[in-house]
Write a structure and sequence with these properties.
Number of domains: 1
Radius of gyration: 31 Å
Order of helices and strands: HHH
Structural class: mainly alpha
């Protein structure tokens, strides 16, 4: 891949990661507004990881630009790879942040009433303790010995 394409894709990746950061930050603020501690902790953890990956990517982008200007192919490839890996991880973290559920998902209605009907023909006893077999059969050998 030419160096100019690496620079363009790296810049686009950084823009996408910043957009993910804003999106997850919105989820953190929403959880804070609703005082949902479970969702806040989950989203905040993802936000912290995204911030770290974005910081690494920004440093790698600067190093990529320097390597391209010095025409160092191996360094530019290395820095470009760092940005692309970080982008993949940020995309994964965005999905995980979308899946963060809060304590409202666990809340039930206090007026909820559950009625259970048991069939009359159920066997009695504890199903976790099976009954012992009534009769133990001993099988004879498959063939009688030959003399």
């Amino acid at each position: 891949m030419p160096d100019s394409a690496k620079l363009v894709r790296s810049t686009q990746a950084l823009g996408g990661m910043r957009e993910v950061l804003r999106s997850v930050l919105g989820k953190v603020e929403e959880a804070r507004r609703t005082r949902d501690v479970v969702k806040l902790n989950c989203a905040n953890e993802k936000l912290t990881q995204i911030k770290g990956l974005l910081r690494i990517s920004e440093q790698a982008d600067v190093s990529l630009q320097e390597a391209v200007s010095r025409q160092e192919a191996s360094s530019s490839e290395h820095e470009y790879t760092k940005v692309m890996i970080a982008q993949q991880k940020v995309t994964q973290l965005r999905g995980e942040a979308e899946e963060c559920i809060g304590q409202l998902a666990f809340r039930t209605d206090e007026n909820l009433f559950v009625e259970v009907e048991e069939p009359n023909n159920l066997p009695g006893g504890d199903p976790s303790r099976p009954l012992a077999p009534d009769l133990l059969l001993v099988r004879p050998p498959p063939a009688s010995p030959v003399r």
